[in-house]
Design a protein that fits this description.
The structure is a single chain. This protein has a single domain (15-99), classed as Muramoyl-pentapeptide Carboxypeptidase, domain 2 (2-Layer Sandwich), CATH 3.30.1380. The termini are far apart. The chain is built from four helices and three strands; from the N terminus they run E-H-E-H-E-H-H. A three-stranded antiparallel sheet has the order 1-3-2. The chain has 100 residues and is of the alpha+beta class. It comes from human gut metagenome. GO terms for molecular function: carboxypeptidase activity. This is D-alanyl-D-alanine carboxypeptidase.
Length: 100
């Protein structure tokens, strides 16, 4: 449905920089419960070390305009991923700072 899927041409997946991750504990579904699994917690802690961020974290929906998706990761480079994670920012906040 359109409520759950981005319009054609509007998905980060089409850039080749984003992907979705799941695990057997949530029946390989894309679920909010993923963030509470061992795999989800590991991903949140370690993704920045490999240049990825949790693109749509809980609590930042007002900035991203996307419901929280703990399974959706995006490559942004290791240095930016670490910076965003340490400061608790999402890309929208980073871009806003760059525009000033």
């Amino acid at each position: 449905s359109l409520c759950e899927t981005a319009m054609p041409g509007c998905s980060e997946h089409q850039t080749g920089l984003a992907l979705d991750v799941s695990c057997p504990a949530v029946s390989l579904n894309l679920s909010q419960a993923f963030s509470e699994t061992t795999e989800g917690r590991w991903l949140a802690r370690h993704a920045p070390l490999y240049g990825f961020i949790i693109r749509y974290p809980k609590g930042k929906e007002h900035l991203t305009k996307i419901p929280a998706e703990p399974w959706h990761i995006r490559y942004v480079t290791r240095s930016l991923a670490l910076c965003l994670t340490l400061t608790g920012q999402v890309l929208e906040e980073y871009y806003a700072c760059c525009e000033r």
